[in-house]
C-alpha cells in the first residue's frame, strides 16, 4: 500500500513500510489519535506534501528503483515521458505479448496441466487487459497533455484543450489503475503458486517464470516514477503555471 494525502498519520505508519522513519524525521507524531488527513497536517505546518510523499515512497525502494529515480528531478516532463515510453512501456508491451504467446502454446498442448494453464491464463488476461488499456490511455491522452502543458508553460505552444477540466482527473484515474494493476499481478502470481504447474517442469513454465520476474520489477519502478515524480510535477505545473495563464487569457 502507498501513502495518500487523505490518509491519517496512524494509517500511513501502520500500512506503509518504511514510512515511520520519514514521519519521525519531520517530527510528525503518528501515535496520536488525531485522524486528520496528511494533507491537512502538512498545510497547517507548512510542510510540502509532495516531497513528504516522495520520501515515504522512496523509503523502501530497491536498488533498481533508486537508480531509475536518480536525476529525474533535473529533467523536463517531456524527457521523463520519453524515458517512460522507451524504458518501461515498450518493455511492458513486449513482455505481455510474449507471455500471451507462452499461454497460447501451453494451453493448446495435450498435457494434463492444460487446465491449470487455462486457469492461470484467465488471471493473466485480466492483468494484461488492465495494463494495456492503462498504457494506451497514458500514451494517447495523459502524456500528450502533459507535454502540451509544459510547452504552453514555456510559451512555446498553444493552450492545451482536453475533455477533462484539469490533469488532476485523469491522474486520479491513473493512480487507481496502478493499484488495480498491482492487485491483478498479485492475483496472477497467486494463481500460479496455487496451481500444480510447478510439477510440470515444462519449458513454458520456465520461460514464463523468466519473463514474470523482470516484468514485476520493471512495473514497480515504472509505477513509482509516474506516481511520485511525473504526475505530481505535472499537477504542480498545471496549477502553478498554467492556471494563471488561463485566467489572464480570460480577462
Ligand atoms: Fe505508464
Ligand atoms: Fe501508469
Describe this structure in words.
This protein has 251 residues and is mainly alpha-helical. It has two domains: 52 residues; 176 residues, no CATH class. 74% of the residues lie in helices and 0% in strands. α6 runs antiparallel to α7, α7 packs antiparallel against α8 and α7 packs parallel to α9. It is globular and about 70 Å long. The mean pLDDT is 83. The structure holds fe (ii) ion (FE2) (2 copies). The site of one fe (ii) ion (FE2) has 6 residues, from α6, α7 and α9.
Q: From the helix content, strand content and strand pairing, which structural class follows? A: mainly alpha
Total of domains: 2
| Major beta sheet summary | none
Count of DSSP H/I helices? 9
Q: Roughly what fraction of the amino acids lie in strands?
A: under 5%
What is the CA–CA distance across the termini? 44 Å
The helix fraction, in percent, is over 70%
Mean pLDDT: 83
Radius of gyration: 21 Å
Bound molecules: fe (ii) ion
Could you give the order of the helices and strands? HHHHHHHHH
Shape: globular
What's the total count of β strands?
Answer: 0
Low-confidence stretches: none
What attributes characterize this protein structure?
single chain, 251 residues, mainly alpha, 2 domains, 74% helix, globular, binds fe (ii) ion
Topology diagram in text:
Layout: H1 9-15, H2 19-25, H3 38-45, H4 49-58, H5 63-69, H6 77-108, H7 114-153, H8 168-194, H9 203-250
Helix pairs in contact: 2-4, 4-9, 5-9, 6-7, 6-9, 7-8, 7-9, 8-9
Bound molecules: fe (ii) ion (2 copies).
